[in-house]
Amino acid sequence: NTATRNERDEYVAITNPTANPVNIEGWSITDTEGIMIFIRKGLQDTNQCNDWLILPIGASYHTPEKFFSSGDGDAIAVATAFVSPDSSFSVLQAELNNASSSLYINIYQFESPHLMDLVLDAINRGVRVRLLLEGSPPRGISDAGLYIAARIKEGGGEVRLVHEPFLNHAKYALIDDKTTVVISENWKNTGVPVNTTFGNRGRGIVLRDEGLADYFTKVFLNDFYRAEDSRYEYKYEYEFTITREIPGGKYTPVFEPLTIHSNLTVIPVLAPDTAMSNETILGAINSAEETIFVKLFSTGKFWGVEPNPFIAALIEAARRGCEVKVLLDSRQYNLDDWNDNDEAIAWMNSVAREENLSLYAELADLDSLGLAKIHNKGLIVDGKVVIISSLNWNANSIRNREVGVIVENDAIAAFYTGVFFHDWNISVKGEGEEEWHGGDGSKERRSTWIRIALVVFTLFISFLIFSVVKRYQRL
Q1: Cis amide leading into 268 (omega within 30)
Q2: Which of 321, 341, 445, 436 is nearest to 382 (CA)?
Q3: Which one, of 241, 278, 247, 282, lies nearest residue 393 by Cα?
Q4: What is the pLDDT of residues 114-145, one digit of tens each?
């Protein structure tokens, strides 16, 4: 290993950490390749490992910033909130069709031929298209993904692939230097389905703010120019035709997009930069006063040997008196491991029972919902703050390139709260009523109270019968 520190103590570069793992007290660097760099978090200097972030060489550190957007009834829409499968395709279709000068896309997986068509149409209109893709996903880029990348490049777009120690797992698009689209979904048939009766439950938002778009453009270009130019051409070693079949399912669309013209604030969330900052996700949880509603694709009880800090923060919020509800995906691959969704649920509900907390955690009933999976990665806090992101609550995710936004607006929060309780009620009760109750732990607590009530009722009836009998005996 070779370590290099600059004069102002702002970064430390380490070469080949995989060949010779770095062992520094409180630091752990394993399963990485090439050159990594430790970036100090601003002016923070506590002589602890938490003062530093691990970034790939050449990556910039982007500080948390707050953006304020205002609108009135006659102004252009400030934001559009939407969910998948209900309207994700129609919203993206409208935004891509409106692109007139530039379209920058950073997406983990791009396999939808229908979205490809819209991107190619934009190129044909003279729009400058740049596409950034993960170059080494765990199962490799699919044939459909390779085909789409090649078609966009052949059509005149710029395509680059990220090959870094951690994944490029972001899912966002920037349009005409003024519009930012952040979504939890990959651009696939399940994530952005044409047929709204099929697909994942995902969450997305369109934000129209030039300052916000400029912030994300800087992030995009830093990642884009660090990535490899896509010099490959798709090899037709065998005949490949991308399928244009539009799958259908049994989901009933419920939620139309919500467009607002009112004031809102937005804070970008980036991993690895700010995902663990007290100004982003943990800050939102730690500042909660009343309610937290969480919907996630993937999490676990532990990060290495330590408890999951996000879930630990939820438990602490419940201890402060907040009502916390957590709905997790129930696909088998999120249940097979010793440290995944079901273990996280068991932990939360166990603590809730032991401490009598208003903390309820459930697995989604995908069959009853008619959904392929829960693919959200976000939460709603106190009925006013919403987090939409690509970040799963796993230890590796905070080192990936992940992108999200924290949006503060009552109407947007109410929209996503309605979606949350639709899915929660069907999963817990089998029906999408307005009334709601708790999760797995709450079922047990409800049944306990029901049994107590039945015992009290039985004793009361027995006392009445006894009294009546004694009275007639005196007659």
Answers
A1: no
A2: 321
A3: 282
A4: 999 999 999 999 999 999 999 999 999 999 99
Question: Given the DSSP bridges, would you call strands 264-271 and 402-408 parallel, antiparallel or unpaired?
Answer: antiparallel
**CB contact at 8 A, 404 and 390:** yes
Say what the pLDDT of residue 341 is: 98
Question: Closest Cα partner for 287 from 200, 405, 408?
Answer: 408
Q: Report the SS3 class of residue 406.
A: strand
| Range(s) within the chain of domains with CATH label 3.30.870.10 | 67-229, 263-446
Cα–Cα distances in angstroms (integers) from residue 171 to residues 92, 164, 174, 332, 362, in the given order: 12, 17, 11, 24, 26
Fold of 263-446: Endonuclease; Chain A (3.30.870)
Smallest Cα–Cα separation from 329: which of 254, 194, 401, 423?
A: 423
**In terms of Cα–Cα distance, which of 335, 399, 385 is closest to 363?**
335
Distance CA 427, CA 446 (A): 16
- Report the 10 Å Cβ neighbour count for 140: 10
**Quick check: 29 and 22 in contact, CB under 8 A?**
yes
Per-residue pLDDT tens over the stretch 454-473? 555 666 666 666 565 455 54
HSE-CB for 474 with a 13 A CA cutoff = 5
**Cβ contact 109:187 at 8 Å:** yes
Q: Which residues pair with 426 in a beta bridge?
A: none
- The DSSP secondary-structure symbol of 8 reads T
Helix (H, G, I), strand (E, B) or coil at 437: coil
Under DSSP, is residue 298 helix (H, G, I), strand (E, B) or coil? coil
Whole-model pTM: value is 0.83
Q: Tokens 């032991």: give the residue.
A: 354
Angle formed by the axes of helices 143-155 and 113-124, to 10°? 10
Are 128 and 103 within 8 A, CB to CB? yes
Residue 265 predicted with pLDDT over 80: yes
CATH architecture of 67-229: 2-Layer Sandwich (3.30)
Residue whose pair of structure tokens reads 């430790």 in the numeric block: 38
